[in-house]
Amino acid sequence: MKLTVATLLLSSLAMTATAAQADGEATYNSACMACHMTGAAGAPIRGKADQWEERQEKGMDTLYDHAINGFQAMPAKGGQSGLSDDEVKAAVDYMLEPTL
Ligand code: HEC
C-alpha cells in the first residue's frame, strides 16, 4: 500500500517535472471534461470555435476570471478547489484550441 502511494507520488512528480508549466490538457481531462465535452448545462464545448467566439470577445482575462471564480452555471474551478489558478488558466487555453 505504502509502495503504491510512493509510486503514485513519484510518477506525479515526474509529470510535473516534464511539464514545465501547468498541464492544461490534464487539468481539462480531470476537472472540466465532464461538462465541456458534452455541453452539459450549456457549457461551451472544447475546441468548437463558434461556441467560444462570443465568449472570447469578453477578453481572456474575463474568461480566466470566470473559470477561477465561477460564472452562472460554471462552478469556480470546475468545482475542484484544489486546483491552482495557473492550472485552471492552462485548462482554459487548452479548451480554446480549435480541435478541427
Ligand atoms: C459542472 C459543469 C462544469 C464543469 C465541471 C466546468 N464547467 Fe466551465 N462552464 C460550465 C457552464 C454550464 C458554462 C456556461 C456558463 C454560462 O455561460 O452560463 C461554463 C463556462 C465556462 C467558461 C466561459 C466563461 C465565460 O465567461 O463565458 C470557461 C472559460 C470555462 N467554463 C472554463 C472551465 C474550466 C477551465 C473548467 C475546469 C477547470 C470548467 N470550466 C469546468 C460548466 C462547467
Considering the chains and any ligands shown, give keywords for the structure:
100 residues, mainly alpha, Cytochrome Bc1 Complex, Chain D, domain 2, binds heme C
What's the helix-strand series? HHHHH
The CATH architecture classification is Orthogonal Bundle
Please identify the top-level CATH class: Mainly Alpha
Radius of gyration, rounded?
15 Å
| Class derived from helix and strand content | mainly alpha
First and last CA, distance: 43 Å
Strand content: under 5%
Biggest sheet, in brief? none
The distinct bound ligands, ions and cofactors come out as: heme C
Estimate the global geometry from the Cα principal axes. elongated
Q: What is the total domain count?
A: 1
CATH superfamily: Cytochrome c-like domain
Helix content: 55-70%
Nearest-integer average pLDDT: 87
By CATH, the topology is: Cytochrome Bc1 Complex, Chain D, domain 2
Number of strands: 0
Domain Cytochrome c: 19-99
Protein name: Cytochrome C oxidase, cbb3-type, subunit III
Organism: Vreelandella subglaciescola
GO molecular function: electron transfer activity; heme binding; iron ion binding
